[in-house]
Design a protein that fits this description.
About 10% of the residues lie in helices and about 60% in strands. The chain is mostly beta strands and about 290 residues long. The chain folds into two domains: about 80 residues, no CATH class; about 150 residues, no CATH class. The termini are far apart.
Length: about 290
């Protein structure tokens, strides 16, 4: 009986070692211990990215999983200085004839304390960020962006892909080139610009502008929904579109060129901080939540 068990145990050990070796070719993980509020500078090329807050953790954890390729197909730079973590991962350039795998995907998952300073840049891939608070800078090239429960100062620049922001708060500055934009939250300042997409903005109860704000769309409609007690001075202009406002504005001026261009200026609930809404080719709709 013992003679049979020894080869079996050795076989199991060999299989286990092979599995670990195989896993090391397709995944990578590291934890960075922290003593204070962290700063994360994060860059990836072609990858899906998920950055979210961890509960009561005192470290940043980064995990990379690769399918269809190997970790050796990528270059990585990572370092830590105090509470500042730098991470960069991008695909290696291949010299000569190279057949790319038909199906390949890289996923990078980051767990971090909720409060931090984040500078994240991705080239190609869907991005999801949730549960963070602080100064958050996010730049994406190609891929959808989903942001949930972010507070503080959010700066977003997106190239090609839809953007959805839910349950945000604080100050938001977002610029997109191509893709629908949906923004929902309690904000006291916002600057939203879209080159080729519609903008849908939902300001929750408690939103009160404390700095001049603007919503601009070059080619797309703008829909703004505000709470009943929202107070602001509105300046609305369209070059090729109409204005549909169902709110009881105190009008200071209205102009129409007889075609699709319109200008509207008025105060809501006594007025307040200026909110400018401009579209080049699209209509504007303002309504109550």
């Amino acid at each position: 009986m013992k003679k049979k068990l020894i080869p079996t145990a050795l076989l199991a050990l060999a299989l286990s070692s092979a599995a670990l070796a195989q896993d090391s070719e397709h995944s990578w993980s590291k934890a960075y211990p922290l003593s204070g509020k962290p700063t994360l500078v994060f860059t990836t090329s072609d990858a899906g990215v998920d950055i979210h807050a961890c509960t009561s953790c005192r470290e940043i954890r980064i995990h990379v999983a690769v399918e269809g390729k190997k970790m050796s197909d990528y270059r990585m730079e990572e370092s830590q200085t105090g509470d500042q973590v730098h991470f960069k991962l991008w695909a290696r350039e291949h010299v000569g004839f190279y057949i790319a795998p038909r199906h390949s995907h890289m996923q990078v998952t980051v767990e971090t304390p909720a409060q931090l300073m984040l500078q994240a840049k991705t080239s190609d891939g869907n991005v999801a960020v949730s549960g963070l608070e602080g100064e958050l800078y996010l730049t994406t090239g190609d891929g959808s962006v989903t942001l949930d429960r972010l507070s503080g100062q959010l700066h977003l620049k997106s190239g090609d892909g839809s953007v959805k922001i839910t349950d945000g708060s604080g100050v938001i500055e977002a610029q997109t080139s191509d893709g629908s934009v949906d923004v929902d939250g309690t904000f006291h300042a916002l600057t939203l610009r879209s080159s080729d997409a519609s903008l849908n903005v939902n300001l929750r109860p408690g939103s009160k502008l404390t700095a001049a704000s603007s919503i601009q769309a070059s080619d797309g409609h703008v829909t703004l929904r505000v709470p009943k007690d929202f107070a602001a001075e509105f300046d609305v202009r369209t070059s090729d579109g109409h204005v549909d406002c169902s709110l009881p504005l105190t009008m200071n001026g209205y102009h129409s060129n007889g075609g699709d261009g319109h200008q509207l200026h008025g105060n809501l609930n006594g007025g307040g901080t200026l909110l400018s809404i401009h579209t080049s080719d699209g209509s504007v709709k303002i309504e109550q939540i």
